[in-house]
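## Example record

The block below lists the input lines for one assembly entry, exactly as stored, with component labels intact.
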Amino acid sequence: MSKYQNAIEIRNLGKRFKDTPAVQDFSITVAPGRVVGFLGPNGAGKTTTIKMLMDLLRADTGTISLLGLDPTEVATAIRARVGYVPEQQNAPRWMRVAEAISFCRTFYPTWDDNLCDQLIRLFSLDPSKKIQSLSKGTKVKLTLLLALAHRPELLVLDEPMAGLDPLIREELVDGILQTASDHPRTILFSSHTFADVQRLADEVVIIHEGRLLAQSPVDDLLAKTKRIRSVLTDGAEPQKNPKGTIWQQRSGREWLVTVNEFSQDTIDSLKAGTDLENIEVIDLSLEEIFKDFIRGQRSELCA
Amino acid sequence: MRLRILLWKDFRQQTSFLLASLILLLLPYLIVSVIFVVVQIREQNSTPWYDYFRIASIASLIASMINFSFFPANAIAGERADRSAEFFAYLPIRRSEAVLSKAIVSLALSTGVVVTCVAIMYLSFKVGRIERGPSWEERCLFVATLMAMFGIAWGVSSFATSATYAAAAGIALPICYGVTLALLLEEQGLPSPQVATIFSLSCVVVGPTCFAAGVRHYLHRVKP
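Predicted structure tokens for the full assembly:
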């Protein structure tokens, strides 16, 4: 039984940079032990939200609770229980890998030397190397090692795989899965690599222009989000979008509609409003669902 | 243990500045040695070597003053400039521990270098059989200037993301203030010793005030 109801609880979070809103009225909850993929296009507000979670940036409005605590009040205590891999790897360039490990282990009471050694082997890290001589991928591996070796209750990853080759991505995902499987922990990670999200995540959060578009278990999202392709009969016009429409497009007589609350009623309501032929229901991948959410918002066609 | 490893980290952060300051301190001795050799070759009855040694030690001491600006300037802003401040910010390090370690290392290095230079200067005085060293007023002026340089550089470093600006502020502001004060007060007929006293007193106030403001800002700043 967890000591807290939600590992992450964000309520009505807001942040502006001068006149530009970065995050607006953003609320999510993440139960302990869940692995959450945080998705959004570039500039959607993912990194800003994560920085506010880590108390590296202060919100203008709203509240955050991490592991049942307020990060603005007890940031140091929370950081001892949270592993964080930022977008940019900023470990001091003059340190050697062994020095960085030795430095960090001092500050974590829960540091696990055995796990650290396992991760050094898994990631093929050379402890004698200087950080400035490491490649981008190896720096990410080191940062992930430092984030995992103290067995955090919550792991926050901000696009850790961005710009890495598939082999290194595979190693990192293996490292995360290995440590997540032997000791269940909550993971929030932002990524643009949908294969990684689909492999790791139990649920996804989609953010666009600082607003929450969806939070759903991955399986539910895949099961309930469908694209319906139909052909409008001569002269027919779509009367109204079905419930849960996230995107639609008309091209000649072809009408494509993506809905995120698909059921048989969706087809019935489509047929009831408009004369249609050749109705086809198409399964979508996570990437296609994400794209339709964003395209729908950008085209502003959906209510 | 936590403070010890932070002290190690902050010392390592300052090593390039320490190396630069050592080169700067040895430079006057090198220059004076070259001049001494050249003069010895050209003239038979030249000035004795310990006079050159004394000149070099004074020049070295004056050069060492900038360390009271370099080390505190690099202590906070240096980590922001190379972005390692972000790395340290998400570790469970209390800001109070971090700032204490930075202050100890900066002050220890600055003082260590200057004390070494002062010791060498007094040695040069002794070797040259110079009886009269700096007066108490001169010593107070020296220490007060160092306090102002350290405090200003530290304070600016806490707000800035560039150690260069903080170091420049620490060196330039006391000099500009001192020159302006001297020009204004001496024009009004105030004797130099009194101008020096006013300057020293204001440095003693400004230095610790800027230092305290820097500490306060560092403790309350959210961004690394």
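Chain A has two domains: 8-218, 226-283. Residues 166-182 of chain A form the longest helix (17 residues).
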